[in-house]
Write a structure and sequence with these properties.
396 residues, alpha/beta, seven-stranded mixed sheet, three-stranded parallel sheet, 44% helix
């Protein structure tokens, strides 16, 4: 009888342990991204979160919704998708990445329904003062400090000239024009020659194909004009692919893309199939590096080891989770870096609050971040350890 009682008790404990292991989460986290066709990296970030914490529909923590590809003409659909997440009574955090136009209004409506929900925005496409009017926290790529750091890294790689490629529409954006001005100032301070080259806007009559063809045809002439010890940078994602292709072929330098990711330009430029490695950044980087180091790009071409979009989607959700659980504090950057570290082992992150030039103050609700640069065949460049003078924050 004693053995039977002990057996029953043991089985009861096993059942209770199993039930506890699969107990429903105390709260839910909503994640809104674009589709794979528009923004694969952030979409894969949502998949990674589901792998970590499970999908709500299967008893887990993460509720993932996608926003329309034609988001500029379907803004109400975008807003509805985000606001709909607040109908879940267990929802405590909503992450939108990319925070496309309409996110500010969506967050306003969420707050009207549920003030208790934390609203986080990744890479906002609305002005800092606009998105922070409703978002509890926002993260953007640090186009201010990177203006100095890319030039600093280029010099470490042996660059004597830094060429910035863009067009008027992009130069009308505050952060992009400020970054260009900072790059020019950094070149002057660090002893490099700065040059600006104009390329066609992919949204103009020439289209994406015409803009890419222009880069393909121009880079050989530019390398001849400025020399092989020249680092090239362009502000447009579509033009990154042909730029990488020609930089590798003609032996120039490339520090990192406008929005760095191993998927930004490299697979297409080098003809690399990464379907099997989708979402596995170490495997993706290993495969790309094996190809790049066999070209003149070895030790001369870089990126971020982990996609910025993927990393930020994961980090924001983790940050919200820890805040709700009382394990992190809102606006505490040390807590934020720990969330990035969880999903990007081996990489280093840094950043600071956005500095509002008009108001002359730092905006704690909007943080600009950057990851250490990784150069194929060389490794990390320790860019996150470089001290950048505050004077660059004041450059317009």
């Amino acid at each position: 009888m004693k053995r039977t009682a002990l057996f029953v008790m043991a089985m009861s404990l096993i059942v209770l342990a199993a039930q506890a292991a699969f107990a429903a989460p105390a709260f839910h986290i909503g994640v809104a991204t674009l589709t794979v066709s528009q923004a694969e990296d952030t979409y894969r970030g949502a998949e990674r979160l589901i792998k970590e914490y499970g999908a709500v529909e299967k008893g887990g923590m993460i509720k993932h919704v996608t926003m329309p590809d034609n988001f500029m003409s379907e803004m109400e659909t975008t807003i509805a998708q985000i606001v709909g997440l607040a109908d879940d009574p267990k929802m405590k955090v909503i992450v939108v990445d990319d925070a496309i136009p309409g996110t500010t209004e969506a967050f306003r409506r969420v707050k009207e329904k549920r003030k208790d929900i934390l609203c986080f925005a990744g890479e906002p496409q609305e002005d800092p003062n606009v998105i922070t009017s409703t978002a509890d926290f926002a993260i953007g790529v640090d186009n201010i400090l990177r203006g100095y750091l890319m030039v600093h890294t280029a010099k470490k790689l042996g660059a004597k000239t830094f060429v910035h490629i863009s067009f008027p529409r992009h130069m009308s954006y505050e952060l992009l024009s400020r970054r260009r001005a900072i790059m020019e100032a950094a070149c002057k301070d660090l002893g490099l020659k700065f040059a600006f080259e104009t390329a066609p806007d992919p949204t103009s009559d020439v289209g994406v194909a015409g803009a890419q063809q222009f880069i393909l045809e121009k880079v050989p002439a530019w390398v001849k004009k400025y020399g092989k010890e020249t680092a090239f940078f362009c502000t447009n994602d579509a033009q990154t692919e042909p730029l990488l292709k020609q930089v590798a072929k003609y032996g120039a330098l490339f520090v990192e893309a406008d929005l760095p990711s191993p998927l930004m330009g490299y697979p297409a430029a080098f003809g690399i199939d990464l379907k099997k490695e989708a979402g596995d950044w170490p495997a993706i980087m290993k495969k790309i590096e094996q190809v790049v180091v066999k070209t003149p790009g070895k030790g001369r071409m870089g990126t971020w080891f982990y996609s910025y979009g993927w990393s930020t989607t994961c980090a924001l959700a983790e940050y919200g989770k820890r805040i709700v659980e009382g394990k992190a504090k809102l606006y505490n950057l040390k807590d934020l870096w720990k969330c990035y570290d969880k999903f990007t082992p081996g990489a280093k992150w840094n950043g600071s609050p956005y500095y509002d030039m008009a108001k002359k103050l730092k905006v704690k609700k909007f943080v600009l971040v950057y990851q250490d640069t990784y150069v194929f065949g060389k490794g990390y460049m320790k860019a996150t350890s470089v001290k950048v003078s505050d004077k660059y924050l004041m450059i317009k």
